[in-house]
Amino acid sequence: AQRVTQPEKLLSVFKGAPVELKCNYSYSGSPELFWYVQYSRQRLQLLLRHISRESIKGFTADLNKGETSFHLKKPFAQEEDSAMYYCALSTTGRRALTFGSGTRLQVQP
Amino acid sequence: SAVISQKPSRDICQRGTSLTIQCQVDSQVTMMFWYRQQPGQSLTLIATANQGSEATYESGFVIDKFPISRPNLTFSTLTVSNMSPEDSSIYLCSVDPTSGRAGDTQYFGPGTRLTVL
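The joint structure predicted for all components is written out below.
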C-alpha cells in the first residue's frame, strides 16, 4: 500500500526566506506525485504535479526516486504563500489520491 | 478543468439522523471520489463513485453507513447515515475530468462541513 509522510505540521518562516516543505512516500512502483494547497477559506487546489515539471508561483518540486521524496521548495517566501500544503500520490492502479497529513506554512512579515 | 459544487455547504445535525450531500460537476467526468477530512487531520478517501454500478469503498468505510449514488456522469450523492458526533467532518467531492490516467489533475469541491450534536 502507498503512504505519504509530511513530517512537519507547521513551518514558520520570515518573508524572503527560503522554504522547503518535506514529503516522503512509500510505494513500490512508479507513483505520480502532487502538491495541493488550501488557502484560508478556499477549496483545495492543485499547486503542481511532478509529471509536468513546472514552476507555479515560484514553487518547484523534484521527484527523487532514490530518496522517495518530493519536497516542495521556494527560494523566497511571500506572505501570500501562507496556507496548508498537502503532498499526495496516485498510481496507475489507484487513481484516488493518498494524502499526507499536511504542513501549515506561515510566512511572517 | 472542472467546476464542482456541493450542497449543503454546512449543516448541523442531530445524532441518529442522516444527511445526503450532493456533488454537481459542470461537465461529464469519468471518475468521482468522496473524501473525509476530520478536524485537524488530512483527507481520507471514503469511496470511488462509479457511474452505473456500486461504489468502491475503502477499508473502514461501508455502504450501509455511507451509501453513494452516481446516476450520471455529472452528479453524485453521499449519505452519512445514523450519524454520531464522530462523523463531524468536512466531506469533499473530487473529480478526474480527463482520461483517468495517473498524473491527471483532480479537482475538488468546496466541501460540506458537518457537525453532529
